[in-house]
Amino acid sequence: MARVRMPIGVFTSAGGDLTAAINKVLEVGVNSVQFHAPGPDQRSRARAREIADQFSEAGIDISLVFCGFAGERYDTIPIVRETVGLVPAATRAERLQNTKSIADFASWLDAPGIGIHVGFVSEDWDSPEFAEVVNVIGEVADYCAERGLTVNLETGQETAGTLLHVLDTAKKPNLGVNFDPANMILYGSGEPLEALRKVGKYVKSCHCKDATWSSKPGVEWGVEVPLGQGDVNIEKFVTILNELGYTGPLTIEREISGERQTTDIKAGIKVLRDIRVRLGIR
C-alpha cells in the first residue's frame, strides 16, 4: 500500500501518561506524531522500546522527537532569548550532552530525527557567538548522523536569512528545518511564506500552527489562534510545501491544554483535509 503524501499528524508528549496521549491521538483520528522527549530518568533503551511498541501497536508513526531543556522559559521574548536552546553560553555544554541523550533515545525508538529550538542565533554572522553556535549545531548533527537521525531546527527565533546562513555554513546533510509558520509571526521574525520559500530546500518537517501579529513585532508576543484563523494563510503554506516537493507529515501543534485543545485540533484536521482535497494531495 502506497504511503500517503503529507499525512496529518499532531504534537504530543511521551513524558506523562502515554496511554492517555495515544488515546487522544486516536480520538482526533490521525496516525502520525511528533512528541517532546521525556526527562532523563525515562530515556533508557528499555523505556524507548516500550514507547515505540505502544505507538506501533496503536498504528501511530513517530515522525520526530523534540528536545527540551530544564530552565527554558517562554514568558516573554527577552526571557526566551536568555534561556532557550543551545545559544545561552552558560548552559550550552550541559544541554549539548542532554541533546545527545535525546538523540540516543530517538535512535532506540527508531524515530527518523530530533527537533530543537536552538535559540536566538546572532544576526551578526561574523561574530564569535554565531561561529560558536554553528559549531555546536554541527556537533549535534554529526552525533545524530552516526545514529541515522536528522536534526530539524525549528523556525521562529531567528530570521529566515540567518537560519539559511546557519544551514549553509554548517554544511551537514542531515541538518534541516522544522518549519513552524506561526512562530515567525509570534516572534516577529519575518513573513512566514516568504521565509518558507527562502529555506524551503532544507525543510524536513513542519508544524501547522497559526497566529496573529503583535502590534510590536519582535518586542511583544503575537497570539496563537486555531488553525486557519490567523495570519499565516495555511492553504498557501501547504501549497508552497507541495510545490517544494515536501512529502512529510503536516503536524498540528496547538499550544493550549484541555478540551479546547482537542476541539481546535479536530477543527484543524478538517482544515488540512479540505486543503489536501483541493490541492489533489493523496
Supply the CATH class.
Alpha Beta
Which CATH-level-2 architecture? Alpha-Beta Barrel
| CATH topology (fold) name | TIM Barrel
Low-confidence stretches: none
Note the overall shape: globular
Please indicate the count of domains: 1
N- to C-terminal distance: 12 Å
Helix content: 40-55%
Order of helices and strands: EHEHEHHEHEHEHHEEEHEH
Q: Average pLDDT across residues? A: 96
Describe the structure.
Helix content is 45%, strand content 16%. It is α/β, with parallel strands linked by helices and 282 residues long. The protein has one domain: Divalent-metal-dependent TIM barrel enzymes (TIM Barrel), CATH 3.20.20. The strands form 2 sheets. It has an 8-stranded parallel beta barrel, surrounded by 5 helices. Helix 6 (160-170) runs parallel beside helix 8 (192-199). 44% of the residues are buried. The mean pLDDT is 96.
